[in-house]
Design brief:
Elements (H helix, E strand, L loop, with lengths): L1 E6 L5 E6 L33 H13 L23 E3 L17 H23 L7 H26 L22 H15 L17 H16 L8 H15 L8 H9 L8 E5 L35 E3 L1 H6 L7 H4 L3 E6 L2 E6 L32 E5 H16 L3 H14 L19 H16 L5 H7 L3 H15 L9 H5 L11 H6 L10
Antiparallel strand pairs: 1-2, 3-5, 4-8, 6-7
Keywords: Cell outer membrane, Membrane, Signal
Protein name: Starch-binding associating with outer membrane
Pfam family, one: SusD-like_3
Length: about 525
């Protein structure tokens, strides 16, 4: 392992472990120039993990896999091309591409997502096996152990969400001849996720212990557990008893008093672009740093592929690849201030060497791009065309409120507590005081449970668009295939001729697309594993 240190935007020196080489095989990545690596570049568990600093570096190495230099995790893929749904399409892509769901089990990015997640799991396993070695403060040790447990579980959550049942590997790799593992069932994977996260909850620190929201804290564990339980209550497990747990954990976050809505929806994302930490709304963000220049390789791409179209590097280049569907645009009322923030109402145009901010006309729905993260607010100079330091929010307080509303409705119907949770989010979206009833912003009174859920589903689409949640939500509601196929019909019937390809991914969607294929590399090496249906 090679130790490297970089300075985070918070001003803290962040050290992290890069696995220089791990054993080739089904759960691991190969390394380049292995024979050229000097012996002093390596350490082993026997001569490492001896100090608190060693544990901190190892923990940062686990967090590191949530970024991934090649964009397969939260630097890009998990909110863009790995999460194709009915909320957006890719400009000028219609065939032979993952972005339109035209691919097979050999697709590189699908294989790399699997690989990077298992790298994170293996790093967490190694840390957990050595966390008790050094003499140190037990509270600090517990915080490190709790984060490692949670992160191992979270990597499994990413895997089971995208691939279904996967091999459960709960110990580190010690030999290239270690036996392969078969797939565990979806239920078994979720049981392991819940066990690790519940074990982590009393160990991790409160969010007040940190100067930023890039660490896993008590309310992060609770919020993600609410998401896990809500997922278990839906497809494919359909364990409706888990609505009770989802509600309990959402309430833990709400009752903690640690979080609240940012009163300005746009400021959430401006803060990200400005590298301003705001833990009240954003419980947990994936921390990006720099622009991939020099020794720091922790940059991301938030607001680049999924940003406002702009040809100018000084303002902040974006090709404007991600475009909203008309379905998403039309979900918003004209008075909903989120629409013209989440969906850019303008682009930058180069006219004879002059860059002009040009507004879209009301008819130009398909021309618009994602607009949540706008590079014009970035403060880093110079700006890189492909990388930036903008953090990505994994879980926001608005999501917690919407999860509470959904769980309340499933258990008790649309009771006042469910209405109040979703209406706080809506009032903020309309620029209204969040705790005062408002006839414009609030949901209609007297809804039945089914209608309330339908409204809530649309509200999640509006509030969380472009944040990697729509595909996940549609799958757990059992709506992914039907929503995609109906989108194909809508686009074909209503889109301008030049934009009818916007329905390409929807047209290609079948039942097999609920899950990714198990990568061919894994199938080839691991004879105990089976392929997902349809692949």
């Amino acid at each position: 392992m090679t130790l490297k240190a970089v300075k985070m935007k918070s001003g803290i020196i962040k050290t992290y472990i890069v696995i220089s080489c791990v054993l080739a095989g089904s759960l691991f990545s190969a390394c380049n120039k292995f024979l050229d690596t000097k012996p002093e570049d390596f350490v082993t568990p026997e001569n490492y993990f001896n100090t608190e600093a060693d544990l901190d570096r190892a923990l940062n190495g686990v967090y590191n896999r949530l970024i991934d230099n090649w964009g397969r995790m939260y630097s890009r893929g998990l909110y863009s091309y790995l999460n194709i749904s009915d909320e957006f399409f890719y400009k000028n892509v219609s065939v032979n591409n993952l972005r339109v769901l035209d691919f097979d089990a050999g697709q590189l990015d699908v294989g790399k997502l699997w690989e990077v997640a298992y790298q994170g799991i293996d790093r967490a396993n190694l840390l957990l096996e050595n966390v008790n070695k050094p003499k140190m403060d037990e509270t600090k040790r517990n915080a490190i152990k709790g984060q490692a447990l949670f992160l191992r579980a979270y990597f499994y959550f990413v895997l089971v969400d995208n691939y279904g049942g996967v091999p459960l590997k709960l110990s580190s790799t010690t030999s290239p001849t270690a036996p392969n593992l078969p797939r565990s069932s979806v239920a078994q994977v979720y049981a392991a996720i819940v066990e690790d996260m519940k074990a982590a909850e009393p160990l991790v620190s409160d969010i007040s212990a940190y100067t930023n929201n890039e660490r896993v804290t008590t309310t992060v564990v609770q919020a993600i557990l609410a998401r896990v339980y809500l997922t278990m209550a839906g497809e494919p497990l359909k364990d409706v008893s888990k609505y009770t747990d989802a509600l309990a954990y959402a309430d833990k976050v709400i009752n903690s008093g640690k979080h609240t809505l940012n009163l300005s929806y746009s400021n959430i994302f401006i803060n990200h672009s400005k590298d301003i930490s705001e833990p009240q709304e954003c419980l947990w963000e994936i921390g990006m740093y720099g622009n991939q220049q020099g020794t720091a390789q922790l940059a991301g791409g938030v607001g680049i592929e999924n940003g406002v179209e702009c040809p100018d590097d000084n303002i902040g280049y974006s090709g404007g690849a991600v475009h909203p569907t008309a379905r998403l645009f039309n979900l918003f009322d004209a008075d909903d201030q989120r629409r013209d923030w989440a969906i850019a109402p303008y682009r930058y145009v180069n006219a004879a060497g002059t860059i002009t901010k040009t507004a879209f006309t009301p008819a130009q729905i398909y021309e618009r791009t994602a607009g949540k993260w706008r590079r014009e607010y970035e403060t880093q100079v110079p700006k890189n065309r492909l990388y930036n330091s903008t953090n990505f929010p994994v879980i926001r307080y608005a999501d917690v409120l919407l999860m509470k509303a959904e769980a309340e409705n499933a258990l008790n119907g649309p009771v006042p507590a469910a209405y109040e949770a979703v209406n706080q989010v809506r009032r903020r979206g309309y620029g209204k005081p969040i705790h005062a009833a408002d006839p414009v912003a609030d949901l209609p009174a007297g809804l039945g449970s089914a209608d309330f859920l339908s409204h809530l589903q649309d509200e999640r689409a509006r509030e969380l668009c472009f944040e990697g949640m729509r595909k996940h939500d549609l799958i757990r509601w059992g709506l992914y295939v039907s929503k995609m196929q109906s989108l194909a019909t809508e686009v074909n019937s209503t889109a301008p001729a030049a934009w009818k390809y916007a329905g390409s991914a929807a047209k290609n969607t079948t039942a097999r697309n609920v899950l990714f294929p198990i990568p061919n590399t894994e199938i080839t090496i691991n004879r105990l594993i089976t392929q997902n249906p349809g692949w």
